[in-house]
Amino acid sequence: MGLRTPLSAARGLGSAKEGVDHWWKQRLTAIALVPLLLWFGFSVALLGTADYYTVVGWLAHPVNAGLMILVLAVGIWHGVLGLQVVIEDYIATEWKKIMVLLLVQFAAVILALAGILAVLRIALGV
Amino acid sequence: MAGRAKPLSPHLQIYRLPLNAILSITHRITGVILALGAVVVVAMLVAAASGSQAFGAMYALGANWLGQIVLFGFTLALYYHMSAGVRHLFWDAGYGYELETARRSSQAIIAVAVVLTLATWAVAYSVSGG
User: Fold this and answer.
1) Which of A47, B3, B23, B68 has the fewest C-beta atoms lying within 10 Å of its C-beta?
2) Residue A92 domain-assigned?
3) CB contact under 8 A, B120 and A42
4) Does residue B77 contact residue B30 with C-beta atoms inside 8 Å?
5) Interface pTM, i.e. ipTM
6) pTM (predicted TM-score)
């Protein structure tokens, strides 16, 4: 502790350089999701009422498995960034906000892991 | 402290939202809906990885009329959020802020979302023969 004001301590250090991190990643994932989700939507539509073996066989193809993993990873990442903004906007109480943010982030990791492991299990046939 | 009712400025419940404002809140709502949609997608994938019985159970949920309506709603939310999101990218780049341009892009967003949704379901129903 000194007599210097917080301003004088911060002066000259510049910004934290992380100000656009959230914004930038939200846009980056958004751009990636446009082709990924068009592929996803029309692929699921093309499967239509396909039976179990057709669906699993389709998902086992490396290209489909790879794109599906990207849909899950990028999509859930984008979702967490988006939900974070909604939570920060509507929950004013600090501890509640942090609790809900933690819950969403933990749930998102579990969801992404479960989805990716499911795809890998089908693709690798284990 | 029973005073006179304070004058109120127009608020959300009596103020008629302009088209762009409706699209804005819809973008947020569809985003939250799609987060729930991600749970459904993972549930489907986990069911497919668990075997034909689990897959059959999930399939039956989506195949009845209620499941079809929910899936249709997710499709519309997806394409809406996507096309409104693309406009956000244009806005981020500094384009399309004129009132008339914004009004027309709003209409385009609705049109693109509806067309992509109908196209997806047309494909789904044509490959599965009704």
Assistant:
1) B3
2) yes
3) yes
4) yes
5) 0.89
6) 0.89
